[in-house]
Specification:
CATH topology of the largest domain: 2,3-Dihydroxybiphenyl 1,2-Dioxygenase, domain 1
Number of strands: 12
CATH architecture of the largest domain: Roll
Number of helices: 8
Distance between the termini: 32 Å
Number of domains: 2
CATH superfamily of the largest domain: 2,3-Dihydroxybiphenyl 1,2-Dioxygenase, domain 1
Largest sheet: 9 strands, mixed
Strand content: 25-35%
Helix content: 25-40%
Shape: globular
Length: 267
């Protein structure tokens, strides 16, 4: 994982003072020494800033690809959040790790109901929302999260959510490029229609694109998933309207049921 901060070296120095394990590796030609620490499950968190030479990391570490075909643009703008999965017993340790090292706040813990059991979920965020992490603690290996831990040999990033400014336009562009969304149960749309009283036109669009919806007094939230990849890795696309602060917790049980259902990709 890579994070842009005001001062990469100072961030690592602070992390080391708080007990984090520094990470170093041999640097070859055309590579930079990037300040880093060990994170969840032995993973690495790299830090860059706007100071030279780290400000030129993309020019130094990467070679531009010359392609006669322009890259496909689906309207994705940035990473909205990452989800890291671990055993429930590890959650407090990693929660303290993040809130100690980074200027973040934690949200209340919520229970996510999986057919195989309960997964505890808690988010860590900066005030401006530039960094959002969800920590998901699995109590057994029967849940989707627990199965991922078993297959990946420990805690790791399981969920990557991209942001878009227009989820319906993004869904249409992706469909034209062969993307297949995660199919959702018709019961889900009956549920949100009853809960929110959405107009028929919006409901038709949500159903047609398999998009999930949530709303609170501060704004709206739209979610689009693809079927799970590999041993349970999750890709998601989200659109936030207004100041919606959450992650669609009310949709989680419907989404997990859909992810656990057999799909054409499994055959």
């Amino acid at each position: 994982m890579g994070l842009k901060v005001d001062d990469a070296k100072a961030t690592v120095a602070r992390a080391k003072a708080l007990g984090a394990e520094p990470f170093e590796q041999t640097v070859g030609p055309g590579e930079l020494t990037i300040p880093a620490i060990r994170g969840i499950g032995g993973g690495v968190i790299h830090f860059i800033d706007q100071k030279p030479p780290l400000a030129r990391v993309w020019d130094i570490e990467f070679v531009p690809v010359v392609d006669s075909d322009p890259p496909f643009d689906a309207g994705l703008t940035r990473i909205d959040h990452l989800g890291q999965t671990m055993n429930y017993e590890e959650m407090l340790t990693w929660l303290l790790f993040y809130v100690s090292i980074f200027r973040t706040r934690k949200t209340p813990m919520v229970d996510v109901i999986d057919p195989g059991g309960v997964v505890r979920s808690q988010s860590i965020e900066t005030d401006d929302g530039a960094m959002r992490l969800t920590l998901n603690g699995a109590e057994n290996h029967r849940t989707l999260a627990g199965h991922f831990i078993a297959e990946s040999f420990g805690a790791s990033v399981q969920h990557l959510a991209f942001a878009t400014g227009d989820i319906f336009a993004t869904a249409a562009l992706l469909k034209g490029n062969g993307f297949r969304p995660l199919p959702l149960s018709p019961n889900y749309y009956d549920d949100i229609e009853a809960r929110f009283g959405l107009d028929g036109g919006l409901m038709d669009c949500l159903r047609a694109e398999n998009i999930l919806y949530d709303r609170d007094p501060r704004g709206e939230y739209f979610q689009l998933y693809c079927p799970t990849y590999g041993d349970g890795f999750i890709f998601e696309i989200v659109e936030r309207r207004g100041s919606y602060p959450g992650y669609g917790a009310a949709n989680a049980s419907f989404r997990i049921a859909a992810q656990n259902a057999p799909s054409d990709l499994d055959r």
